[in-house]
């Protein structure tokens, strides 16, 4: 008779230990990554910051009752005080209120630009990687052309050329900025997805699906996409912060968003003439921008480590 106090190397199938091992082994990549992410301090810190920023963008009226567009020239460039925690800008507008309300525009631009880049780039990469041949070469060369254009130079050219066509519409200018970021950034996503698709199309599960008569669309959606999306999602989390910084850069250069739009980039652009006399005009929106970009970069690092089996302990 086997002593129940002695641990066996091979647990019987019906034991709780074996059942737990079976559940652990059967977890999908996404579930396994989520299990790992919840135990990473980096992920917790990043998601806490991002959650706070999302709340700011959705409900700015909970944090300030001041209209960010109303100014009093008698208070122009006054420093921080009990009445205005972040001081006033060059038109006497409350910098704290503008920083809070600017969260919405900056994050919305980043999210929409990231969505555009991921959707377009991923589709192109999947098609190129799955089909191969001359179509793969053609799409790869097109991506190389866009990839070779310097981002800032390309954005200046595109925005300067098409800005007159959208007029002074806030929605039109915002859409133009988002489209410009997407136009110049999709090749990176395309390359990542193409590499993953080329590796996936040679796997046994894809060959088995073809042998069973599955069509190209079913193979791509049901078999390849779930196994190739992870590296794209890792890039998307990092790119979102980068695109928020890109919007601020373009606004600072005078080709992106402009007043009356309230965004961190617009505030930084307006502060550039008063850096010596009124540094608070740059300090607070710049600080929020840095924290936001850092939060998304930290989130991207945590997601990358979670989806990388070699990086797990």
UniProtKB/TrEMBL annotation:
- Source domain of life is Bacteria
Query: Where does the UniProt entry say this protein principally localizes?
Result: membrane
Alphabetically sorted, this entry's keywords are: Cell membrane, Membrane, Transmembrane, Transmembrane helix, Transport
Could you list the residue ranges that cross the membrane? 42-63, 107-131, 138-160, 166-186, 232-257, 282-303
Q: Where does the UniProt annotation locate this protein?
A: Cell membrane
Gene Ontology CC entries for this record? plasma membrane
InterPro entries reported for this sequence: BP-dependent_transpt_permease, MetI-like, MetI-like_sf, OppC_N
The segment(s) forming the ABC transmembrane type-1 domain are 103-300
Q: Does the keyword DNA-binding apply?
A: no
What is the protein's membrane topology class?
A: Multi-pass membrane protein
**PANTHER family of this UniProt entry?**
ABC TRANSPORTER PERMEASE PROTEIN (PTHR43386:SF6), OLIGOPEPTIDE TRANSPORT SYSTEM PERMEASE PROTEIN APPC (PTHR43386)
Q: Which family does it belong to?
A: Belongs to the binding-protein-dependent transport system permease family.
Entry protein name:
Glutathione transport system permease protein GsiD
* Species: Pseudonocardia autotrophica (Amycolata autotrophica)
